[in-house]
Amino acid sequence: MKLFECQSCGQILFFENTVCEHCRRAVGYLPEQSLLTALDPTGDRLWHPLEPSVKHEQVLYCSNHDDDVCNWLTTPDATGGRSFCLACRFNRTIPNLDIPGNLERWRKIEVAKHRLFYTLLRLKLPLKDRRQDPENGLVFDFLDDAPDGSSSVMTGHANGVITIAMREADDASRERMRVEMGEYYRTLLGHFRHEIGHYYWNVLVRDAGRLDECRAVFGDDRADYQKALQVYYDSPTPPDWQDSHVSVYATSHPWEDFAETWAHYLHIVSTLETACAFGVSVDPRVPGIGHASGRTLGDPYTQASFEDIMQAWLPLTYAVNSLNRSMGLADFYPFVLTAGIMHKLAFIHRLIRESQPAQRD
Length: 361
Prior knowledge:
Elements: E1 4-5, E2 12-13, E3 27-30, E4 35-43, E5 46-49, E6 60-61, E7 73-74, E8 91-93, H1 102-122, E9 139-143, E10 156-158, E11 161-165, H2 171-181, H3 188-206, H4 211-218, H5 225-234, H6 254-277, H7 306-326, H8 339-355, H9 357-360
Parallel strand pairs: 8-9, 9-11
Antiparallel strand pairs: 1-2, 3-4, 4-5, 6-7, 10-11
Helix pairs in contact: 1-3, 3-6, 6-7, 6-8
């Protein structure tokens, strides 16, 4: 994530800000320009962006701003109805806000979802909602378990529908599940990045005629999915899983391997952009370990070379893992990227690059 600057006073701004903490001006995010802009009120809930490059004379906050779950801006609806931003238009089911605690859980979910959309837009990935593609368009359902405990919502993806279980927004519940599942990492943002990987397998692989290429890297997706999951849960962990899989769950089926690898690619480019924004570089003060050195990469979203991304990423993980250990915390990135895993990540990198409009011209 990059940093932003208040156009009124020059104060640093962060992605989720709704007000400049220095001059107290309202701020909002313009997804088309990928920037936060300070705002002047013009009346009737409308605002004038102070960012000089913005062509819109008047904007308004997404309707979900009323619940303090979104700071994105949109243009007024011609009918005078509710206006949702680019990210919130993909919501099909929002939580029942009459349930105590659900508003705060929804806020956490929207923070993660908006960060996901920031990355998807920066990568210039295709996005179609259900109005544009009624059969397979992207849509989100944020659902609670049955109040009587008779059924539990499963986080997952099916034909463009991404379901997020509301309990995943409860930190204690999610950590308990992480321990029970033997996972290194379990976050809301991680869930979004994983599930969107399934969606883009449909869009960029299945529907783009690249099944053979993908199968050569991840294996044959025609293997029975439910049977593969049952075998995964009933069997001991493969001893050599780290040779070619970024997580144990990735061993269950080629679809899950693709989605897990996709999620890690998004982890990498997003974190590298943050490091770049802060001017972070790694230069260990120990002789003879030049392989652990790394300079800031520049904008990872525009990098053509996957090797350059890895050369920046690996030293950063060594450094930040060490910082976390100095605070008695778990590793920031507790994963080992072997040659086999990096081969899969390189496929994701190439798949995304070749899907971008500029790459097709």
